[in-house]
C-alpha cells in the first residue's frame, strides 16, 4: 500500500517512517537519513524528472553535508570542502563520454574576463581570473574559431547564470557546445555560437556563489562545460574535520578533485531509493 511503514525510537523520540513513493521494488539503492537534524538547504538537479537530491543539515549547530542521491553518474563528483567552504560540482553538460580532455578550474578566483572563439559552435573558452589581486590567465580549452569575443567584467560584476546549447555539428558527430550565454548581476552576454541542439542552464540562486568552471575539450571545440557552486549563506563548522582541499594558485593546468567526506549516519527521516539517470536540464538550489 506504500503508507506508514514502521515506528521506532530515536533519542527518546518516536519516529515514524512514511513511504517512500515511487519505485520501491527495483534494484535501486536504498538510502536513509534518519534524525540528521534541521534542514538548512536542499539541492535538486532536474530536467524532465528529478535527477538527484542532496541535503545540508544543521546538527546541533554543526553544518553537515549529506550524500548526493542520484544525478550524473560517473561525471559528478560529490560535494567537497575547499578552504572551509561547501563546494558542489555540477555537470558538465555536453559530450561526457568521448576521449576529449577533461579540465578543472575550481576556486581559481573571481572571473575578470571570458574569452570565447566560436562559429557554428563554441570552439574554445579561456578565463582570466583575479586571485587575491593577482591577474591569472588560465589555459585555453579548445581551438580556433571564425569569431572572437572578449567579455570584461566590472569590479562589482559577477556571474549569476550560464546557459546555452549542445549537440553535434554534423550528423552522427560527437556533441560539442553549440552556444553559450553568460548572465551577471548587470547584464547578459551573448549568445555566442549557434542556438541549436539541447538547451541547458545553470542558475545561481540566493545563498550561492559561482565557484569555478570544469569541462572537456578537444583540439577544435569545447566539448562540455560545467560549474562549481559554493554556499555563501552558512558558516561551516565540521566535527570531526573531514579531509579538506586548499585551493592553490593556478598552475595554468587542470587541477584534480579530491573525493569528499560525507557525514556519518547518526541520528527528521528521509528514506528513498535512487539510481543514476540522464543528465538534468537545469540545476536549482533552495535555501530554507
From TrEMBL:
InterPro entries given in the database record: Jacalin-like_lectin_dom, Jacalin-like_lectin_dom_plant, Jacalin-like_lectin_dom_sf
Keyword Acetylation carried by entry: no
Jacalin-type lectin domain span: 87-231
Keyword Signal in annotation: no
UniProt xrefs under Pfam families: Jacalin
Gene3D superfamilies (UniProt xref): Jacalin-like lectin domain
TM spans (from-to): none
Keywords noted in UniProt: Lectin
GO MF terms held by the record: carbohydrate binding
Database matches in PANTHER family: JACALIN-RELATED LECTIN 19, JACALIN-RELATED LECTIN 3
Name of the protein: Jacalin
Organism per entry: Musa troglodytarum
Organismal lineage: Eukaryota, Viridiplantae, Streptophyta, Embryophyta, Tracheophyta
